[in-house]
Amino acid sequence: MSTPRAYSVETRDLNLWYGDFQALKNVSVQIAQGRITSLIGPSGCGKTTLLRCFNRVNERYGNVKTTGEIKILAKNIYDPDVSLIELRKSVGMVFQRPNPLPISVYENIVFGQRIHQERRAIKKSDLDQIVEQSLREVFLWDDLKDKLHERAVSLQLEQQQKLCIARLLPLKPEVILMDEPCSALDAKATRAIEELMISLTGRYTMLIVTHNMAQARRISEECIFMLLGELMEHSPTRELFITPRHPKTAEYIEGRYG
Amino acid sequence: MGQRRWHNLSETLIEWVIRLCGISAIICVFGIFFFVFREGADLLFHRFDIVQFLFSQEWYPTSQSHIRYGVLALIAGTASVTVLAMLMAVPFGLGAAIFVSEFCGPKMKEALKITIELLAAIPSVVWGFIGLTVMNPLIITVFHAPIGLNVLNGGIILALMSVPIIVSIAEDALKAVPDSYREAGLALGATRWQLIYRVLLPAAKNGLLAAVLLGVGRAVGETMAVLMATGHAVKIPTSLLDSVRTLTATIAAELGEAPMHSDHYQVLFIIGILLFSLTFAVNLIADLIVKGIRNK
Question: Which CATH class is domain B68-295?
Answer without folding.
Answer: mainly alpha
